[in-house]
Amino acid sequence: MREFTFCLPTRILFGPGAEEKTGEAAQEEGGRRVLVLYGGGNAVRSGLIGRVQVSLVRAGILCSIKGGIRPNPVMEFAEETVWEYQNKGIDLVLAVGGWQRYGHCQGGGCGPGLLRR
Fold this sequence. Notes:
About 40% of the residues lie in helices and about 15% in strands. The chain is built from five helices and three strands.
């Protein structure tokens, strides 16, 4: 077994109006290009994704938005996320919604370790 150190820092914003603070929080984390991940259409229909996007743009942050995360995502979807992370200059991954999005973001942030060679 190889020796390694693994650190996956996580910051959670929760509660009313939390989406309006995402731009500021992303800046504090050094984000310049953010990959926003969410599940189904409710996040879009409710306006949540739009409010997150406005907060990021106001903070001067570029964002890519990817929906469709579901419980127990398939490997192909995870690999697509990693590809976007690596090839679009993403430096921060933002989960919007419940724990499935959070878990997927953790995997996406791992980067090359998820890609099959």
